[in-house]
Amino acid sequence: MLRFVRKLFAQNILLQVGSLNSVGIAVRVVCGLITSKLIAVYLGASGMALLGDLRNFMSSLQSLGQLGVSNGVIKYTATYKKQPEALHKLVATVLKLPFLVSLGLGLIVVIAAPDLNTLIFENTADYTLIIRLAGIVLPLFTLQTLLLNILNGLGDFRKVIFINMSINASGVLLSALLIVWFSLFGAMLALLLSGVLALGITLVFLRKYFAKAKELFLLKIDASLLKKLGSYAFMSLFSAVAAPWVYIAIRQYIIETDGIENAGYWDAMLRLSDYYLMFATSILTLYVLPKLATSGTQTNLRKVTTDFYRSILPFFALGLLVIFLLKGFIIRLIYDASFLEMQSIFIWQLAGDLVRVASLVIAYEIIAKRMVKTFVITQLISLSIIYFSSVWLVSRYGFVGAGMAHLLSYSLYLLVVVILFRKKLFARITQ
């Protein structure tokens, strides 16, 4: 049996990446669970809801600062990794321009902080200082993320995973200290300072490349590369601007109609969802996107999708079933008994996440092949469905309605992408 398992792993690179990735995910999840426990104990459900608003804002801000080129960087780094001159031009371009843009965007955030505070938190609290700090640290978040994108594209999976493990382990210590000392303000501060810490750790791992830094700095920004990355930028920026703000709007609607405590339960479910989705979505980024990006065959999408459905999706589905069966225990472990009311949303969120992963492995073809119009239309439809269905269902079923809307949205999204790529999905696989 042991020999069979070794042979299976030796022949399947997806399982090799997945197994090492699982260790990294385990570290990240454990660190996340510790942080969630601290938030539940020291901040409660209401604090979790407000922290969720800041997380969504930072997600949007980071993507804007990166000019939405992350997926494009992975694709073209994978494409040019055996062409040193082209690769150097790419690295210089994707590090310089987004960093400069992040500086400008950060300045705008610092100046507009009072208005942004009203927009994000409405009349709940004044976190203008936190928003200003977000603008200050934004360029550092941008640089760190793009460096990891480059490593992803180069296929240096082990280094990426070890960097992330180090970041997570040190980040939880920072969060623990600041939450205990400064409560909700400390939790928000930890979220922002984690980016500074992450950049420092990333640079330590990449110190052997410092000799090339001066050479890359002297290279000019390549306009032709910007044109190639432009479609990726547009796609990512669309999502960056729309998706986090949709979730902020849904959270505010839950607060208004069902109370801030129930909004916190929904956000607690989203945090838990983020933990178990890390495994599947990181495999998509580490393996699926580079595979789709570097292949020109018509049948490649079916092959990649089939491999993923056979190798990864069954384990993911089994994990979701275990989570559902142990939901009461998990809530007490991660949060505390005061969060048990969130059990009612589990079935909807778990089912929605299974459908989500099944749809994303197909939908990554849109990103890999730069299908801008298709991307915008499908995202617009998906976000519209999740927002309006959330409003309708939350008004009838409370915060659980947001979970129902999640399942509805991704079920329709899966149907749409299967129809869009039906010819590739149902074509014969060629060697």
Automatic annotation (TrEMBL):
Keyword Nucleotide-binding: no
Annotated Gene Ontology cellular component terms: plasma membrane
Subcellular location as annotated: Cell membrane
Keyword vocabulary terms for this entry: Cell membrane, Membrane, Transmembrane, Transmembrane helix
Keyword Transmembrane: yes
GO BP annotation list: enterobacterial common antigen biosynthetic process
Bilayer-spanning residue ranges: 90-113, 129-148, 160-182, 188-210, 231-255, 275-294, 315-335, 347-367, 374-393, 399-421
Topology in the lipid bilayer: Multi-pass membrane protein
InterPro entries hit by this protein: Poly_Biosynth_Transport, WzxE
Protein name per the record: O-antigen flippase
Organism: Leeuwenhoekiella nanhaiensis
Upper classification of the organism: Bacteria, Pseudomonadati, Bacteroidota, Flavobacteriia, Flavobacteriales
